[in-house]
Amino acid sequence: MENSFSPTEFISVVNQTLEYTYSSVVVVGEVSGFKVNQGKWVFFDLKDDESSVSCFMTLWSLRQPIEDGMKIAVRAVPKLTKFGKFSLTVNAVKPVGEGSLKKAYEMLKKKLTAEGLFAAEKKRPIPEDLTKIGVISSTQAAGYADFIKIINARWGGMKVTVAHTQVQGMDAPDQMIRALQYFNERSEVQMIVMIRGGGSADDLSCFNDEKLVREIAASKIPVITGIGHEVDESLADLAADVRASTPSNAAEILTKDKNEEKKRIDRLMEHTKQALMQNIDLAIRGNKEKVARISRGIIDKYIEPSLELNREKMQKALELISQKFKETNTLFLTKMKLLDALNPEKVLRQGYAILSGKISPGSVVKITTHQKEIEAEVKTIKERKENG
Amino acid sequence: MADKMSLNQKIEKLDTEVEWFYSDDFKLDEATDKYKEAVSLAKEIEEDLTKLKNEIEVLAEDFTK
Which of A120, A168, A325, A370 has a CB 3.0–4.6 Å from the CB of A348, allowing a cystine? Predict the structure, then answer.
């Protein structure tokens, strides 16, 4: 006799067999007949060109929005219900393909924006004296290696605590949520850094998980994200306090460049030295002016009056000397003119002659003119009467 | 005292000390001591910048569960 079962027993045996064979299965298909009952139960069919399978899940488990026509992957447990209907009990959903990913992203972004989750006024700055940071990433990821390399090259003296988690796939959001909770519960770090290198839209879709995005927004400790490349924008980025374009960029935002800082300090000290020297110069100049002012005061008060008196005397003396000099000069010139007039040569040049020798009849005398000397014999001598 | 401060705190202190030289509080008779103090702090910062390393710890916690 073959084994016989009651319907309940049969369903129980089938479910045990399914659970043993397919304890967790991922099925990819297109959503159809999506509906939410009583605000908490989600029903839809997952179909392809030939077949369709019913899916059931709680609304709480639905972390990325879906709608009819979207291609999704579900992680589920196959089950036969007590009514004998086959169904997948879904515990995780992920949009698949560019169109579905984009659609889910836009839908959740709209919803969370309306709730104010990404509001600019909620953003907190990076703490000024940042010495303790918590990193959420996969330690095997290239993005993590870039972050550590750059942070070590740029700055020192920081304590970096790393929570190793998956950063892609269906399990990644929950792991990152637990890491966020770990850091928030302990409050030992000043900033949480969530990083992941570049990847496909599908790889990065875990950063659009609603629960993860809400956890980031609710974090007591400020969060900075550096996810993917410059062009990639996730909802985690929007919820974070600071968004870096890449893991390397996150390291650059969080730290100063020690070489630049050394140069800045050198310049600062050089300028300070110059400022100090200028202040000393100003003080010296101030003292000199002070001395000059005092000196001028002494001169005005004590020296200038006597100097003025002396000056008058000297002026009078000079005037007297000048007068005397003028008189002397005039006298000298008169004498010079007189001497000039008496010059024999000048008389000869005027046509006169000089007669020298003994004047007696028969004697020889010398006659000197301007140009000649003449010897002549005296013949007669007569007395002359003066004219006029 | 400076030893107990973080690198950033030392830099902030140096910036404050330097500002004094440009402020109305500047006094020539205090300037030499203040300048020596700033030079010493600047030297300490430069040494820190050269020597200090980051401490990196990967948590043993398993976040998969």
Answer: A370
